[in-house]
Amino acid sequence: MTGSIAEAVLIAQVLSSVGMFGVIWTIQLVHYPLMAHIPPSAFVEYERRHTKAISLIVGPFMAIEGLCVLAVFFARPPAIPFWMPLTGGVLEALAIGTTAFVSAPLHGRLENGYDSALLSRLIRTNWVRTIAWTGRAFIAVAMLVTFL
Length: 148
What we know:
Structural class: mainly alpha
Number of domains: 1
Shape: elongated
Order of helices and strands: HHHH
């Protein structure tokens, strides 16, 4: 992948990765901690609405980011050292894997009712995603800067 196509993919990767960086830090520091203050009688409806609404934001970011990660990994522009897309891919796999196998199931269980232990586990384990998407944002920007 070279030229304007590579540049477009790298820019899309930066936008989606930095978008997820902003979302995940907001979720980690603001949104999840505030969930403990939702009255138990309203928690199930709140959790269902949260899951539906946040999916409209993170779904497109995650899809674009995932496609860009694959494109850069399998059609790496010559100017970008191999370790960059490899590291980015590992971080993406960590973020997506934690989402699919830890966070989503915890949200599913929280849809049955408030549980402080489950919410605490969600907040603790979300640090994995927060760190992974932070790394993704930095590596995506680094790849674009290296390419340019």
